[in-house]
Amino acid sequence: MGHFGAARRWLTEEAVNAVSAAEAYLGLFQGEGAAEDRAAALAQARIAHEEAAGDGEPWVDRWRLTRATAVFTALGEAPPPVPVYDETTDAPIPYEAEIRAWVDELNAAKAAGKAAAND
């Protein structure tokens, strides 16, 4: 087992991010072909994919999402779908209503000024 065993021990004992762990397990699987390495690579890729998907498109961690997707592809699996960001779930910005009302007033004053200038 040698280096592969040492790599597995390092992966289970050290805190690594999910993308790096998925890629490491993929390398172990490609090196030895052990089923447990494939399963571990898929499990870590799922975690990495979920973390990278974040709030959904377009607000994803593209670099990590691409790397996680590459692990799925290398293992012949389809990655999970990435959700689309839903802005309706956002909390309102403090004073948002007041800011919007003020902007509307400014736009109305600007439009009135343009209309007066055209007369």
Structure report:
By secondary structure, this protein is mostly helical. The chain has one domain. The chain has five helices and no strands. The chain has helices at residues 2-13, 18-32, 35-53, 62-74, 96-118. Helix 1 runs antiparallel to helix 2 (18-32), helix 2 (18-32) packs antiparallel against helix 3 and helix 3 runs antiparallel to helix 4 (62-74). The mean pLDDT is 82.
List the helices and strands and how they pair.
Elements: H1 2-13, H2 18-32, H3 35-53, H4 62-74, H5 96-118
Proportion in β-strands: under 5%
Class from secondary-structure proportions? mainly alpha
Distance between the termini: 88 Å
Low-confidence stretches: none
Q: What's the helix-strand series?
A: HHHHH
Provide the gyration radius in Å.
Answer: 25 Å
Work out the helicity level: 55-70%
Sketch the major β-sheet.
none
Please, how many helices? 5
Please give the number of β-strands.
0
Shape: rod-shaped
What is the total domain count? 1
Summed over residues and divided by their number, the pLDDT gives a mean of: 82
